[in-house]
Amino acid sequence: MINGSVCVVLGARGKTSQRLIELLVKKGASEIRAVVRPSTESASGFDDASVSVVQGDISKIDTLREAFQGANYVFNGASGKGYQGAMDVDWFGVGSTASLAKEAGVEQYLLVSSQFVHPDNHWHPIRLLLNTVPNPSPDTSPDTSPDTNSLESNNDIRPAG
Ligand SMILES: NC(=O)c1ccc[n+]([C@@H]2O[C@H](COP(=O)([O-])OP(=O)(O)OC[C@H]3O[C@@H](n4cnc5c(N)ncnc54)[C@H](OP(=O)(O)O)[C@@H]3O)[C@@H](O)[C@H]2O)c1
Q1: Which mutation among 22, 37, 100 tests ligand 1's pocket best, with the greatest number of atoms within 8 A of CB?
Q2: Using a 6 Å cutoff on CB, does residue 92 contact ligand 1?
Q3: Which of 38, 51, 90, 106 keeps 20 to 30 A from 13, CA to CA?
Q4: pLDDT tens-digit profile of 126-152?
């Protein structure tokens, strides 16, 4: 139930998160914490009074602690650029933010996955290519690799569309 809830949106300056924030406002979230990177130029631009801009960087997990405190929902619409960005945000960042959400007592963590997970895209050339790229070993960073067990019954994976 979004109405009256406290929501955190990661990657709040991104195209997907912007639309998500509009929807959360429409659905009556009482507080929306729009997380932007400190390096992101403009920190304003969200019109509704329920939206507050907070600074945080997924690659520095401690910068998100305060934003997650007391939140009902965390929406992860962030996406890194380049190899290091993809590693920090799309690989290790998913596990570390999900673990932090659990630690902070967040009720639900929602990840905006790639549109290529949709069954319609099963034979898409990019998905075929990505499926052949070996994943980095979780052993390289045991504290931050995605831990699906830690999500327990809050784990709800659905294709978009
Ligand atoms: N399932 C679907 O149908 C579907 C459709 C569209 C998109 N998506 C997925 O949604 C995700 C976002 O796509 P998009 O097009 O909205 O991307 P985007 O416009 O590039 O936005 C990504 C956001 O992530 C932020 N970010 C990058 N590194 C960060 C970090 N270290 N800490 C915090 N924030 C960070 C960026 O911040 P800055 O503004 O500071 O650069 C940016 O605002 C992607 O994974 C994409 O595949 C899925």
Answers
A1: 37
A2: no
A3: 106
A4: 888 877 877 665 554 444 444 444 333
> Which ligand 1 atom is the nearest neighbour of the CA of 93?
31
Round to whole Å and give the CA distance between 88 and 86. Answer: 6
Strand 51-55 and strand 31-36: the pairing is: parallel
At 95, which amino acid appears?
G
Per-residue model confidence (pLDDT) at position 103:
97
159 falls within a domain: no
What is the extent of the structural domain holding 12?
Answer: 6-154
Q: Is residue 119 part of a domain?
A: yes
Which amino acid appears at position 18 of this protein? Q
For residue 103, being part of any structural domain is answered with yes
* pTM of the entire predicted model: 0.84
Q: How many domains does the chain have?
A: 1
Kindly state the tokens that stand for 123: 């034979």
pLDDT of residue 155: 45
Task: Show the tokens assigned to 78.
Answer: 């962030």
What is the C-alpha separation between 117 and 113, in angstroms, rounded? 7
Q: Which structure tokens are listed for 63?
A: 């910068």
